[in-house]
Write a structure and sequence with these properties.
The protein is an alpha/beta fold and 459 residues long. The chain has helices spanning 40-49, 69-76, 153-171, 201-207, 216-225, 234-243, 259-267, 278-283, 298-305, 322-330, 344-350, 377-382, 415-426, 439-446; strands spanning 8-13, 18-26, 29-33, 52-57, 79-83, 93-95, 100-102, 107-112, 121-127, 130-137, 140-141, 144-145, 178-181, 199-200, 256-257, 271-274, 290-291, 312-315, 337-341, 359-361, 371-373, 389-390, 408-410, 433-435. The mean pLDDT is 95.
Length: 459
């Protein structure tokens, strides 16, 4: 078959900042690349087009989500394509550099592109001798390259140098070759904010500051300078993906639990996770519950702040979909989901249980409180309140003693700040308020201007 742009269907996970791809191969068959364990969007897209996934390719052992390739093998009989160097412990076609797979008219060629991980492959799509595009996974990204520190600080520099060679190899492809990365803006695997999702080799040779580096040492310096923190769960998912995630025989569900059962689970070491919007949590919540509003970034903060080894019970609000909680949790390997509080907070209170409230203040009411900014370091450096104390949300659990007395906790809009306040409350703090808004609202109310950099920050 020939290739047309509409044969490639990107499937964006806004929360993780990743793109999976579904490629129509003709005759009702498809190739899936870097599909997540949450296959709802992929299955829906395939069904609309009358496609069956015949091949499921993974560019690398993902750290930020569980692969859906094993599940696709079970559901559709797909042949799983992955690097021989990954030593995966499940049935797959192991590919080495230069190996080719006949897709039935199109060809997929494996290119070894280590750096983000040791065993990373890019997949070059060919129509005869014509190079159509390359699935670059965590190698060449739009205006960047993926992080190289996931295997520990002892390997970071070595892998950064491997990433340099991999990007140089990809840059040798024809300028018109499409580039289809997995990681994009919003990914903690290191993609710049606001960047597009796809590009071409030629565009990257002109615009990517890493490809413009005059030598390998400069490349390494630039790449490592852009690395921020990443969620704790990243450290364990690659091995789960190597072994192969458990196959699901049916969509998991979240059972309804009585208030008494929720109380017992929490008393026995479980965690209560309140997924309602920040304002609802502030008005009243189960004492020592963790606020993680159900939104696109839910999986990131669930995996960053809680272990995967204890039962989780959820408090939901009106209209929230329990299935969304389940799939976001399952795609990062959180399966100990005990259930949800049947009847929500009304049922909790009707059973005679206490609740706690958190002050949720507009900027004009927050004056006089120390400002605790819990955004990422890059966000803070781009513009923050003068004299703010900065502790990233992901580090707050281990830095409670560094949080100021009577803080107003703030992020960009209030969601992460409410999560941070719940972390502080779980540690015994009772003096916390949350800013309903962001730094621009706060400085405007006080006649100040945002400052850039980190020199005036306190910790």
């Amino acid at each position: 078959m020939g290739f047309a742009d509409d044969h490639l269907i990107p499937l964006l996970d806004e929360g993780l900042g990743n793109s999976a791809y579904l490629l129509d191969l003709g005759e009702g068959r498809a190739l899936a690349v870097d599909a997540s364990r949450d296959l709802r969007a992929l299955h829906a897209s395939a069904k609309r087009r009358g496609l069956r996934v015949a091949f499921a390719a993974d560019t690398h052992l993902h750290a930020d989500f569980l692969s859906g390739a094993v599940q696709l093998g079970h559901d559709t009989g797909a042949t799983v394509l992955a690097s021989v160097a990954g030593r995966r412990a499940f049935a797959h076609r192991a590919l080495a550099d230069g190996d080719e797979v006949d897709l039935g008219g199109l060809t997929l060629r494996a290119l070894a592109t280590p750096g983000h991980t040791d065993e990373h492959l890019s997949f070059l799509l060919l129509d005869g001798s014509r190079k159509l595009g390359v699935f670059t996974g965590g190698s060449l990204l739009v205006d960047s390259a993926a992080r190289t520190d996931l295997l520990g600080p002892g390997r970071t520099g070595e892998l950064a140098r491997a990433q340099y060679r991999s990007l140089k190899r990809l840059a040798e492809l024809p300028d018109e070759t499409a580039v289809w990365p997995t990681h994009g803006a919003g990914s903690f695997c290191s993609a710049p904010p606001g960047a597009g999702r796809t590009t071409t080799v030629g565009a990257q040779k002109r615009a990517n500051p890493l490809l413009a580096a005059p030598d390998e040492d400069t490349f390494v310096t630039r790449l490592l300078a852009g690395l921020g923190t990443y969620p704790a769960y990243f450290d364990r998912l690659a091995e789960t993906n190597r072994r192969g995630p458990a196959v699901l025989s049916a969509a998991p569900v979240l059972p309804a639990l009585s208030a008494r059962r929720v109380r017992a689970l929490v008393a026995d070491g479980g965690h209560a996770v309140d997924v309602r919007p920040a304002a609802e949590y502030a008005a009243g919540h189960i004492p020592r519950s963790l606020s993680v509003p159900l939104r696109e970034q839910f999986a990131t903060w669930l995996g960053w702040l809680l272990p995967d080894t204890a039962p989780l019970v959820f408090v939901t609000g009106a209209g929230q979909d329990p299935g969304e909680i389940v799939w976001q949790a399952y795609k990062i390997g959180y399966e100990r989901l005990a259930g949800r509080l049947d009847g929500g907070m009304e049922a909790w209170l009707a059973d005679g249980n206490p609740q706690t409230a958190t002050a949720f203040l507009t900027a004009d009411r927050a004056a006089g409180r120390p400002y605790l900014d819990v955004r990422q370091a890059s966000e803070f450096a781009a513009g923050h309140v003068p004299g703010a104390v900065h502790i990233e949300l992901g580090a707050l659990h281990g830095a409670v003693a560094d949080a100021p007395h009577r803080p107003v906790v703030a992020c960009g809009h209030g969601e992460r700040a409410m999560t941070a306040a719940s972390v502080l409350e779980r540690a015994g703090r009772t003096d916390v308020a949350v800013l309903d808004g962001g730094p621009a609202d706060y400085t405007a109310a006080r006649g100040q201007r945002l400052v850039q950099g980190t020199r005036d920050a306190r910790r």
